[in-house]
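Below is how a single chain appears once it has passed through the pipeline. First comes the sequence as given, then the structure the pipeline wrote out for it. We keep one example in the README because the format questions we get most often are answered faster by looking than by reading.
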Amino acid sequence: MENQNLVYRSEKKYYINLMQSIKLKSKLKYLMKIDENIKDNNGYTIRTLYFDSYDDDDYFDKVDGLNLRKKIRLRIYSTKQETAKLELKQKEGNLQRKQSLTISKDIALQMINGNYEPLLGLQKEFAQKIYYMLQRGYYRPKCLLTYQRFAFVENINKIRITFDSDIKYTESDFRLFEDCIILTPYIHDPILEVKYDGFLLDHIRKLLENIDSQQCSISKYIISRSLKK
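Resulting structure:
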C-alpha cells in the first residue's frame, strides 16, 4: 500500500479553447496512445485536496512567482477508493519534481481532520518529511478540486499530454471521499498540460507549435482560491 514514486520532469501548461482541444485530440490519437485509464470520451475524474499553511505560504509563493515553491495534496480518482495518493509537488526553475506515496483511506481521513501522526507510523522517509512540513507550517486543508482529464502517453521520454476540463472547487467542504458535496464550477476553456523527461519528440513538438496560445504559469489550486480573494 505504501508505494513511493519520484518524478522529475519538464511541464508546460496552456489555456486553449474548445475547438483547439478537439483538433489536437483528433491529431494526437494518431501520434500517441490514449491513457489506459480512459474508458470513454469523457476521460477520467481527478479529485484533489490541497493543504496550505496557516498563512497560505504556498499560495503566495506561487502568486509572487518565487522560483522555488511547493504544493502538498491528497489525490483520488474515485470516491470508492480505499487509498489516496499523498503528493508533494515542487517547482525548481523550469522543472517539476513530484514525490508521491500511496496511503490508506483511514490515514487520509485523519490528515483531513488535522492529525498527521499516522504518517510517522508508515516509517517512510517521504512520509516523515511531509509530517514535519505540515506540523511546522500549521497546514490544514484549504481547497478541494475535481475535474475531468483526457490523456495521451508516449513511453519514449515519458511524454504525457493532458486536457483538463469541467473544473469545480470548494473551499468549505473537504470530504474527499464523499459524493454529496457542493462544488462551484470554474468557467473556462480546457487547460492543456505537456509533461516529459529530457525533450519532446520532434513530431509532437511540431504539432504543439501550431497551438495559437502562449505558455502560461497555470495552477488550478491558485485559480480556484483566487476567485474568492
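The longest strand covers residues 140-154.

See the next section for the split statistics.
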